[in-house]
UniProtKB/TrEMBL annotation:
EC number(s) given by UniProt: 4.2.1.84
Catalytic activity: an aliphatic primary amide = an aliphatic nitrile + H2O
Superkingdom field: Bacteria
Originating species: Palleronia abyssalis
Domain Nitrile hydratase beta subunit-like N-terminal as annotated: residue spans: 1-98
Name of this chain's protein: Nitrile hydratase subunit beta
Matching InterPro entries: CN_hydtase_beta-like_N, CN_hydtase_beta_C, CN_hydtase_beta_dom_C, Elect_transpt_acc-like_dom_sf, Nitrile_hydratase_bsu
Length: 223
């Protein structure tokens, strides 16, 4: 099944128009509020980063195709808040609210710089790497989550079934395909793999250009 969000290499979606140098970080004031609300809600610990990505992917195709970037963020966040019972539908619709049991986890404004500077490292103990730098590897086909039908995966469709070369090995990291679905972190070795741009995009790509992708071990097999 084609995933509506997996747009890399797809034709017919129009040109990519870079923002002019010096453009504002946020085109509209509410964009900054949308980002702040998403980060603050995530700090409550009710979902993982991978689950939040999957929430955006699960938006109705008609909405995904027409919503702007931050509209997608707000819509997905709303779904997560209700799904996790962080808020009720009545509260969402402007009804009476009660003090949340999660109030103690709120992200206070004076703690934001420290919290964001720490980030959320994803490196974990995991199995030994099956590939070494310099190895030729092939990405699996089809590019789907092999544990959950229609589930989250970080293997893009445009790279599926292609051969590349491992150029870096990063140790084991949280595996998005399980972490997005409450199946555990399932850490796997993570690699950077280089692909010929012409192999991926065809003869219109510049000769000698490469595309670098960070890919988990179960996405790969020996070429």
């Amino acid at each position: 099944m084609t995933r509506i969000h997996d747009m890399g290499g797809r034709f017919g979606d129009g040109p990519v128009t870079p923002e002019p140098e010096g453009a504002r970080v946020f085109a509209e004031a509410w964009h900054a509020r949308a980002l702040a609300l998403t980060l603050a809600s995530g700090s409550l610990g009710q979902w993982t980063l991978d689950r939040s990505r999957h929430a955006r992917e699960r938006l109705a195709p008609a909405d995904y195709a027409t919503f702007t970037y931050y509209e997608k963020w707000v819509a997905a966040l709303t779904d997560l808040l209700v799904e996790t019972e962080t808020i009720t539908r009545a509260e969402l619709e402007g009804g009476e609210t009660a003090l949340s049991p999660l109030a103690g986890k709120r992200l206070a404004s004076d703690t934001v710089p420290d919290v964001l500077s720490k980030g959320a490292p994803t490196d974990r103990r995991g199995p030994p790497p099956a590939f070494a730098v310099g190895d030729a590897v092939a990405t699996r086909r089809p590019p789907r989550n092999d544990r959950i039908t229609g589930g989250h995966t970080r293997l893009p469709a445009y790279a599926s079934g292609h051969i590349g070369n491992v150029i870096a090995s990063h140790g084991s990291h949280v595996f998005p395909d399980t972490n997005a679905h409450a199946l555990g972190e399932g850490p796997e070795p993570l690699y950077t793999v280089a692909f010929s741009a012409r192999d991926l995009w065809g003869p219109d790509a510049t000769q000698g250009d490469e595309v670098m992708l960070d890919l988990w071990q179960s996405y790969l097999k020996p070429a």
